[in-house]
What does this fold into?
Amino acid sequence: MIDARVAPAGLVHEAALYGDQDELLDVVVPFVAAGARAGEAVVVALDGRDADRVRAATAGDPRIAYLSPADAYARPAVTLRTFRSLVDRRLAGGIARVRMVGALPARVVGSAWDAWCRYEAAVERVFARAPVSLLCAYDTRVASDEVLADVEQLHHRLALPGGVLVAPGRTAGPEELVARHPPPPPDPLEAGPPDLELVDPSVREARRRAHALAGAAGHGDQGADEVGLAVSETVSNARVHGRPPVVVRGWAGPDRVVITVADQGPGPADALVGLAPVAPDARDGRGLWIVQQLCPDVALVRAEGTFTVRLRFPRTG
It folds into this structure.
């Protein structure tokens, strides 16, 4: 058990595991109220009903800001960039510490957990020794046992109802956990014949054909542009850093487009490549960083003699 009275210095990355909304509030309300009393910048990213209950329990404290979780958790790399920018602005304004609480949407905890598991691990790198307290809430009615096991390993401590803080007993660091994580299963669409298949395409051809596939699947102009650009960046990355042949396959389903880009290289050594913001003049990691700004579900799949980037684009709107 951890003494909650000890003031943290750098990053504190906590997880709250809850079985109903009352248990969620029992952890979240004291967390945000303590931050407001201490003069910290407090940010809440919970869904509408839970956010409303936090507002009511804290008497609408104007020191607590609220974000829409649908916007806050749209894409892992974008979330990290957005939260880092938010923290930097608050610290530059004279705030000594930032306190944030959020809950990943249920759809994310389910089908896209591999991408968000990497996000949770990248939090350690992006915030490093920043004066930030992050509380990530997970609904045990939604999260699988495998997800909850990852959650315990990816956080410094668990926040339980009643103000109890427990150290989870990590057996591996976040980056090591991600590196040895089993690869996500193929998307069910991959069981059928691909609607698109290219071998050693040019970057321009890959972009054009991916754009056409997404457009025909009803993704709209902006969505098709994002698919095309993400695929072109992935192909460019494979041509520069991988080994031929580079094979592009794509499937269009009723609610998503799935595209894989495979080469015969080992893939990047960094399990978190592309998640942390990179410098404008960076030579490594920039391509996959751009890809993960555009695609909400990026999986890096290593197999014997093959490295595959799987991109899943849900159709929205």
